[in-house]
Amino acid sequence: MGPRITRISAKFPISIQLTKSEPPFACFRVIRGPNPGGSTFGFFVSFVVKTLPAMPSLPETYSARVHELLIHAEKKNAATIARLAPVIGASVARGGVIHAFGSGHSDCIAREIIGRAGGLVCVSGVIDPTAGFIENHVGYGTSLIERYDRQYQLLPGETIIVISNSGKNSAPLEVALYAQQKGLHVVGLTALAMSTTAKTVHPGGKNLHAIAAETLDNCGVPGDTLIEVTPGVFSGPTSTLVGAMLLNLLMLSVIDWLKANGHPIPVLRSQNLPGAIEFNRTVGGKYQGRLSRQLA
Q1: Which residues pair with 99 in a beta bridge?
Q2: Is the domain of 148 the same as that of 85?
Q3: Count of structural domains, the chain
Q4: pTM of the model
Q5: Integer angstrom CA distances of residue 84 from 90, 186, 231, 249
Q6: What is the DSSP letter of 285?
Q7: What is the C-alpha separation between 17 and 213, in angstroms, rounded?
Q8: Residues 134 and 48 in one domain
Q9: If you compute the radius of gyration of the chain from its CA atoms, what whole number of angstroms results?
Q10: How far is 255 from 55, CA to CA, in rounded Å?
């Protein structure tokens, strides 16, 4: 890169005119004015200054990196989703339920596909009333899923999606192990960069990816933050954003399979639309007693 001109000085009057501006370059012309003695003789010199781009803001940096991450995560998980669609689709076609559990903040991701407009009605959530507060108390996850099983039933051949960004905490691991023993197809959603390196607190010694039959990778980094705000301070989480996208891609792939194979598609409508509440009650009628979230 050529030198940047930061200051121009002269012993005679000059003017500087911008002649062309096409970032990152700007062209200027220096014109000499009259001499102090009254002479009108003058000259001009043209020069080019390369301007440096402004540093992107934190939101701009986050937006750019998240867009890249979403594309990467979609491509990386495409084969897994393609394998899961017919397995889950066949279960739904038989009247089966999809169960979802996320501990702590991961509960937000599970709720993305539970009882929502445009989603499959047959998705039921395993809800932790402590919101993950005691997720590392060994035995709590087992008690939680046993109680859920008594209320809503976990049936062989159905699918449960267990979400844990770290893949190491006790409650989601116990939920996955219990469902596995009951004959369910266990799908993990985690950050493999963490689940494959973080030591589990569960005495079984396995992390989520090692228990699940299939694993969706949210492609997050350890700590779940992308942007260094100041040295050693990070922000810009990604697990919720990417996790929600992956679950919606999975649900749409299941719907695509149902459609291609001539099965009914039990999708909910927004209850803000005319007649939607009655429609949803009809669609959800066959799942009475099996869904943890009551339909309106």
Answers
A1: 124, 160
A2: yes
A3: 2
A4: 0.82
A5: 10, 10, 41, 11
A6: G
A7: 69
A8: no
A9: 29
A10: 44
